[in-house]
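How it folds
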Amino acid sequence: QVQLVESGGGSVQPGGSLRLSCAASRSGFSIGTMGWYRQAPGKQRELVALISNNGTTDYGDSVKGRFTIARVNALNTVYLQMNGLKPEDTADYYCYVNVGGDYWGQGTQVTVSS
């Protein structure tokens, strides 16, 4: 079983910053790719950022240059630093982890509004 504990969501004004964290507990498997997806009301879930276990990253086009993903393997934790937030970044953000299968967090809400 894998449990994901997310933290760091909240409300911020446009141009502000937030950092999301996701800690994974796992049993018996090595953690592979970790990352974040998001889903805004009425829209499909979309890729925000992924990071492999060797540090290779992939970002959604809408967040490139503003968001940074990182991981600490010793802590089984992935981080998402979000700078220059825009109202269109408002969404529920879901942690994703591949540990012998795909696992999702419960989601943390990010609201960007003035």
